[in-house]
Design brief:
Number of helices: 12
Structural class: alpha/beta
Strand content: 15-25%
Distance between the termini: 12 Å
Radius of gyration: 20 Å
Length: 377
């Protein structure tokens, strides 16, 4: 599909998948897209990953912007227009879109864009590039956009240069798309937050796309032992093929299986957001171990951790987006993929554009690990 209208001089008509109300699903609509601004580019979206965060904001369980809204934050595609000052990118470039950051605060200037002081506003607050009334229904109603600086549940997305990472030729865009969030979150927790070294032992609780990415990154980094925990047997089996040395059911963990594996655990990553799994992870690592929390769980979730498990020296910390600078981590991960050391294709199930609701449903039910909706390669 081509963008119609003057993208640099007036509204353009684009096709997007709009959530009009909580739990109402997404409906395809033709919307008017505002003109491109300095520092922005327009991306023709080839593929977009589906994340639990997209589900949470479109079903109303989390809401930071009024309905109607366009979600999507793991988009990859080709640049079709470049605004003034968008240095480093040109029409025709293949890119993956990641999260937004301001580039000016202390966190950004220190090289920690995921700790940007405006992170919530720019990303989950629908306040990133492309926001602020930039999408409009044909009747004039404003549509909330700029989700993670992209709102890529659409065939075209306005985004800023800080969101963008070049995708080399030879890397399929439908595989590159989920690197923008979920893949870098899990892998970054291993490589950035924990800085896992050869010979270290890691526990991963929850093996969705984020947890599986942590498993693959740990194998690539030379971990001696990788223990994966998940209630779904097929995911435990997949984790073993991707590098896990042990795969346990949460019931096994509750029965003391972590005490019997015979491997002292240096690190743990929790992607489940379940208090019992977090407590088990803290208890399982040795006295100098570190536990990284990635998932917040449902609103109001609290994990009570016995003080006796902390005062000996264990550390518990969070990590957002894998503590990543996307322009550094994503190319590194794509090179690992090209070398056959990061087989993300094992996680991906593709859906057509008309199947976006099906993709979200399949993820919510746990039928797939990482759904990717393909518009156009």
């Amino acid at each position: 599909m081509q963008v119609t209208g003057g993208i640099t001089g007036g509204p353009a008509a684009i096709r997007a998948w709009v959530a009009s109300s909580p739990n109402g699903g997404l409906a395809q609509e033709t919307l008017d897209l505002d003109e491109i601004r300095p520092g922005e580019v327009l991306v023709r979206v080839a593929a977009v990953g589906v994340c639990h965060t997209d589900i949470a904001y479109t079903d109303g369980s989390r809401q930071a912007a009024p309905f109607p809204l366009v979600a999507g934050h793991e988009g990859a595609g080709v640049i079709v227009a470049v605004g003034p000052g968008a240095e480093g990118f040109a029409v025709g470039d293949r890119v993956v879109m990641s999260f937004s950051s301001c580039g000016r605060c202390r966190g950004c200037l220190a090289g920690w864009p995921a700790r940007c002081s405006s992170f919530r506003e720019l990303n989950s607050g629908f306040g990133g590039p492309g926001s602020g009334g930039r999408l409009t229904r044909r009747n004039g109603e404003k549509v909330s956009a700029g989700f993670f600086g992209q709102s890529s549940f659409a065939e075209h997305a306005l985004t800023g240069v800080r969101n963008l990472v070049h995708v080399p030729e030879g890397v399929p865009l439908h595989l590159a798309a989920p690197f923008g969030c979920g893949i870098q979150t899990g892998a970054g927790a291993v490589l950035n937050a924990l800085r896992l070294q050869p010979g270290d032992a890691l526990l991963v609780t929850g093996t969705g796309a984020v947890g599986m990415s942590a498993v693959m990154a740990a194998r690539a980094a030379g971990a001696a032992a990788i223990v994966a925990v998940d209630p779904v047997a097929s995911r435990r089996a997949l984790a073993l093929t991707l590098g896990a040395t042990h795969a346990l059911d949460p019931a096994d963990v509750a029965a003391g299986a972590l005490d019997r594996i015979g491997v002292p655990l240096d690190f743990a990553i929790d992607t489940s957001g379940r208090p019992e799994m977090i407590r088990a992870a803290v208890a399982a690592v040795h006295s100098a171990g570190v536990v990284v929390l990635i998932a917040a769980g449902p609103a109001g979730t609290v994990a009570d951790i016995p003080l006796r498990d902390l005062i000996v020296g264990r550390q518990v910390r969070g990590a957002v987006e894998g503590d990543a600078v996307p322009q550094l981590l994503i190319p590194r991960l794509l090179e690992l993929w090209r070398a056959g050391q990061f087989p993300v294709e094992a996680l991906v199930s593709t859906f057509g554009a008309a199947e976006l609701n099906d993709a979200m449903r399949a993820m919510k039910l746990g039928h797939v690990v990482k759904p990717v909706v393909v518009f156009d390669e």
